[in-house]
Amino acid sequence: MPNLALWRWRLSTAGIGGVALNASAELKMNLPEPVSPLTAEIFDLHMLTTTVATIIMVVVIALVAIIIFRFRRSKGAVADQSFNDSRFGTWGWMLVPIVVLAIDLSIAGPGAKTLKNVETFEEADLTLKIIGSQWKWTYDYLDQEISFVSNLNNEDLSSPGYLREVDNPVVLPTHKRIRFLHTSSDVLHNWWVPSVAPKKDAIPGYINETWAIIEKEGTYYGQCAELCGTRHAYMPIVVKAVSEQEFTQWVDKQKQQKAQQLAEASAEKEWSKAELMARGESIYNRACAACHQPTGTGIPGVFPALQGSPIATGDPAPHLDIVINGKPGTAMSAWGSQLNDLEIAAVITYERNSWGNDSGDLVQPADVKAAR
Question: Are 222 and 189 in contact (CB under 8 A)?
């Protein structure tokens, strides 16, 4: 990060005096410390705009205060009826717009440069496709052939990580150019980690692109910055920036886990009810409970209940179809591409045998494979 941005960040969070220092550190009134050249430029632009706006505010307030105090009626002040005809009045109408335009251009220049850099697309070392959904993120590492879903993992109001922690954080290498491809499976979302990358809308059926070079290892937090529905506030983002060596080790581990899961899901094995229920409960709480609630009661008028519903107690075929293919026009997305056969079998078995449903149905991976 440039020295200028670093010092501006330090000064903005320092405050004035010991009390102000502590308050600023706790409240974190400013943007987080940038760790990418692009976010450093954005931070500098933000500080420039804030500084100019603060100076204008102080000057205007001071001028208004002086005028009110010196030219108040109680002191016998009389309005100058010929002000516009005076030299000061005549030139003032020309000079003031020139000053305002100069101030605008002082911001527009750096702003245009930063915007140009945001839209600069060069060859990247790593490409990450980000898919926003109600209300989770799906990450596809296109070069490494790794894909996973990231969900909110902390709704404990007393916890420091309330509404910020996720079950699967994004892991990225430092000092590598990373290309982000943004899209959505349902409505508008916006993947925003202010320390790492600028805002970019995720639009259904469209790909937006931005980039970052993370220069400092650490954990960085963000969130969806586009109002996307009732659980908009429950779409946090966690980015873990690690060394290139550590990233390579993480990729190898992810590939091993994926291969193991695929082998397990494709095995010709009849899973017991206890095995499917245990696995299904974990998947349900991670992927389904946000809408249908942990108790299966849903949210009346928003998300349907699974408890006692025809889908979860009737013929298993429609249940398989809606989980695999989703339901167009609703928030029910297709899970066929996100979960393997075993995971879908487990979660459907759990839904059909929980909260008093007790259908007794066991859905096996072979059933899911046949339904795809």
Answer: no
Domain C-terminal end among 68, 93, 118: 118
**Contacts of 164 by beta carbon, 8 Å cutoff, 6+ apart:** 154, 221, 236, 238
In contact, 171 and 202? CB cutoff 8 Å:
no
- 57-89 pLDDT, tens digit per residue, is 999 999 999 988 888 888 888 877 777 778 877
DSSP codes joined into one string, 63-97:
HHHHHHHHT-GGGT----TTGGGSHHHHHHHHHHH
**Are both 251 and 273 inside the same structural domain?**
no
Written as one letter, the residue type at 15 is: G
pLDDT of 151 reads 87
Residue that terminates a domain, selected from 242, 259, 276: 259
Cα gap 332→113, rounded to integer Å:
42
Yes or no: say if 107 and 215 are a contact pair by the CB < 8 Å rule: no
> Are 233 and 281 members of one domain?
no
Q: pLDDT category, 15, cuts 50, 70, 90?
A: very low
Q: Are residues 139 and 109 in the same domain?
A: no
State how many domains the chain has: 3
Question: What are 37's two structure tokens?
Answer: 């050249």
Range of the domain at 291: 267-371
Same domain as 32, residue 147: no
Q: What is the CATH number of the domain that holds 315?
A: 1.10.760.10
pLDDT of 2? 47
Q: Same structural domain for residues 97 and 179?
A: no
- Number of residues in the chain: 372
d(C-alpha 313, C-alpha 308), whole Å: 6
Residue type, 10: R
Report the CATH number that the domain containing residue 139 is assigned in CATH: 2.60.40.420
One domain for residues 202 and 301: no
Residues near 173 by beta carbon (within 8 Å), at least 6 away in sequence: 125, 126, 214, 241, 242, 243, 244, 246, 247
Tens digit of pLDDT for each residue in 217-232? 999 999 999 998 888 9
Please state, in angstroms and rounded to a whole number, the distance separating the CA atoms of residues 318 and 310: 9
pLDDT of residue 337: 78
pLDDT tens digit sequence for 288-335: 887 888 899 988 888 889 999 898 888 889 999 999 988 887 778 788
